Description:
By secondary structure, the protein is mainly alpha-helical. It has helices at about 10-15, 20-25, 30-50, 55-65, 70-80, 85-95, 110-145, 165-190, 200-205, 210-225, 240-270, 295-310, 310-320, 330-355, 360-375, 380-385, 390-415, 420-425, 435-440, 450-465; strands spanning about 150-155, 155-165, 275, 360. It is built from 20 helices and four strands. Helix 5 packs across helix 6.
Amino acid sequence: MERESLxxxxxxxxxxxxxxEMAFNFSEQKKFTTWRRLWLYLAKAQQTLGLNITDEQxxxxxxxxxxxxxxxxxEEEKRRRHDVMAHVHTFGQCCPKASGIIHLGATSCYVGDNxxxxxxxxxxxIVLPRLARCIQRLSVFAEKNKNLATLGFTHYQPAQLTTVGxxxxxxxxxxxxxxxxxxxxxxxxxxxxxxxxxxxxASFLALFENNSEKVEMLDRLVTxxxxxxxxxxxxxxxxxxxxxxxxxxxxxGLGATVxxxxxxxxxLANLKELEEPFEKEQIGSSAMPYKRNPMRSERCCxxxxxxxxxxxxxLQTHSVQWFERTLDDSANRRICLAEAFLxxxxxxxxxxxxxxxxxxxxxxIERRIKQELPFMATENIIMAMVKSxxxxxxxxxxxxxxxxxxxxxxxxxxxxxxxxxxIKASSYFTPIHNSLDQxxxxxxxxxxxxxxxxxxxxxxxxPALKPFxxxxxxxxxLNL
Length: 480
């Protein structure tokens, strides 16, 4: 790292966390080389449709896509206060033969908005495989632990038993919804295309002497060259900022999912039932050497909150886009669109890393079940006693008294739950003494959890992962 760079603020999203792939996707290099490609597409399409543009000119443009004089571009923008015209002149400087036809008939949003749509599409294509890998890793975890009984919680109070694998399926189910939503948002993206200053295509109609068919074909050719199947039929000067709302909505939804998953992991880490990966030389606390803080999950929760809040930017921006457009969207969009995808990228790479190294502690889980299960089994015990001839009301009162005594030991004395011992010592419950241990088998309290896991993974998860089969092997390595 150059020491001079340490004297300026750098976004932690790029400096600390994000993948090189996503960081490049929102880089100046990609942005401005994409502008040049769009100018080339426009020139080639105009040439195809009969404008006086030569192969020599388009070849010159093709050869100089990556040849950007960054110093000149910076100086031109300072002088002209217009980034697009600065780069038109910079591109023209290295393409003297083509300089006169660069940006012909176009408005700034031809390169600005179309580039944004290309970058957004490519960003979806980066995060979707990452999301699929998180789902796949958690699916392996769920399958492995589908039979492992664990205490369920409602209101963060002990509830009926579930299994570790079934709980993981709750996480996976939400992630599958995100996979669907992100895929849908990507596939719904269209190209702005070649629409002119206020979206009327008037400048291109003039170029082609009022030939509407050629203007339609120009729009179609450029859209296809950019790799899109469709362009928006109507736009203002920009594509509707409602599109940005759709995009950040699904990313915010992903943020909420990851926050919930990692909050659960943090709570389970406190209970010592489950831990995220902890490396051999990792330090949990500078003051308390024994600590194994769930720092990856905490990072996810921290960044997920940022991602969730970003949806407010496009909502407010879209609401104040007067008529065909205003420019108060520009600075805001430079920040929120990039930050949303950079944050989603970090969340998914971190969640994948967590999912690849989750550690379960069955003995701790078993101990907690033993503390709570006797209370949960009281209804089953009453039913068994009634079947042996006892009165339901009498049995309820007997077990109520023993339960209160056992609860007092737990709450007031800090002892273990001894309800089972008390039942075994009571002559009243003699008819069920021999079957008591069987009645307290945790596996009999998890319902259809294992079957639900098997069915869910087979019928919903595996089909959802099929389109991403070639991306699933990559391991996640965190930068920090």
